[in-house]
């Protein structure tokens, strides 16, 4: 049985790769896409999701619900300098045929979770604003989601937006704190893992280029700005923070172990706002703070297996 999945996304750069995996991998049944504030302008992110669905040959088959266009309390911080002004490598693709749904993402999430209790997995690959708003409105959804995969935070690694914080948690730290305290069954993939285990370098990108498919060309175009940006921060290649999680959902063997932890988010620090504070459960005896782990934190990823999965997806069209 394929995993029944909803992706909450701020569609730009690697969010697109993640959507392609979810749209085309036989082990995933993507049932809806919800759009959160994040990487680039909100309307552009909606268009990017719709265009990606069209590129995957799935136009009209997966609904896209616009959600919260601003963080709960923070000022929005864009990441267009990472992904291009349109979030798609400065490609400015035409509008897709499919249009967004009139229903708000928060309503769609709550309705769909209640309609299939215990059956839906969610991949949250954006600031956690929509998920927090949904669980504030209806706290009972936390126990009804099968697993909530989250891309965000850092685990013993530097951040990517400040030295202490990763982008998704930095943009909406209050939302992240609410979600980690809500009682979901959470699996967390942090930015440090992405830098260690998911960078595809120029030789890998040449392998993708040689596929010579429409999707391989699309991937290279969407990721060309992030490839250049990464060079300026000492990363030689394209990072895959969101698509590594989609790949783990499709093929759990890509994840190299999970550690039960207590995860909380700093919301007030002068230098550390948005930082993830992660305590492994094994420290519980020493650190009385850890009474009950609230997340499993991923310890690593099998890069070769991930690359093979991604190339398989990109060779499909
Ligand atoms: C996260 O921030 C965004 O720019 C990416 O889409 C990813 O979800 C990485 O920190
Ligand atoms: Ca994202």
UniProtKB/TrEMBL annotation:
- Which Pfam family is one of those matched by this entry? IU_nuc_hydro
- Which GO molecular-function terms appear in the entry? hydrolase activity, hydrolyzing N-glycosyl compounds
Family matches, as Gene3D superfamilies: Ribonucleoside hydrolase-like
Q: Which domain of life is it from?
A: Bacteria
User: Does this entry carry the keyword Hydrolase?
Assistant: yes
Which of UniProt's keywords are assigned here?
A: Hydrolase
Inosine/uridine-preferring nucleoside hydrolase domain location, by residue?
5-307
- Coiled-coil ranges per UniProt: none
The keyword Nuclease is annotated on this UniProt entry: no
| Protein name per its UniProtKB record | Inosine/uridine-preferring nucleoside hydrolase
Its lineage opens with: Bacteria, Bacillati, Bacillota, Clostridia, Eubacteriales
């Amino acid at each position: 049985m394929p995993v029944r999945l909803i992706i909450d996304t701020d569609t730009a750069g690697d969010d697109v790769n993640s959507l392609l995996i979810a749209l085309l991998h036989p082990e995933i049944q993507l049932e809806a896409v919800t759009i959160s504030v994040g990487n680039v302008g909100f309307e552009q992110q909606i268009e990017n999701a719709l265009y990606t669905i069209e590129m995957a040959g799935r136009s009209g088959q997966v609904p896209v619900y616009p959600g919260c266009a601003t963080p709960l309390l923070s000022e929005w911080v864009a990441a267009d300098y990472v992904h291009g002004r349109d979030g798609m490598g400065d490609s400015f693709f035409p509008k897709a045929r499919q249009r967004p749904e009139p229903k708000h993402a928060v309503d769609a999430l709550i309705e769909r979770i209640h309609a299939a209790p215990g059956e839906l997995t969610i991949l949250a690959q954006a600031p956690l604003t929509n998920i927090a708003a949904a669980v504030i409105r209806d706290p009972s959804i936390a126990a009804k989601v099968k697993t909530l995969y989250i891309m965000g935070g850092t685990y013993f690694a530097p951040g990517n937006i400040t030295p202490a914080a990763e982008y998704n948690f930095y943009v909406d730290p209050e939302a992240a704190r609410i979600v980690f305290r809500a009682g979901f069954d959470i699996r967390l993939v942090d930015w440090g893992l992405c830098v260690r285990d998911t960078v595809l370098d120029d030789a890998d990108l040449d392998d993708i280029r040689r596929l010579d498919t429409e999707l391989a060309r699309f991937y290279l175009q969407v990721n060309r700005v992030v490839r250049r940006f990464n060079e300026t921060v000492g990363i030689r290649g394209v990072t895959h923070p969101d698509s590594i999680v989609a790949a783990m959902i499709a093929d759990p063997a890509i994840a190299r172990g999970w550690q039960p932890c207590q995860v909380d988010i700093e919301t007030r620090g002068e230098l550390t706002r948005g930082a993830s504070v992660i305590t492994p459960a094994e420290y519980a005896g020493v650190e009385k703070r850890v009474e009950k782990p609230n997340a499993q934190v991923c310890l690593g990823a099998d890069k070769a297996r991930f690359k093979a999965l991604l190339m398989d997806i990109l060779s499909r069209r």
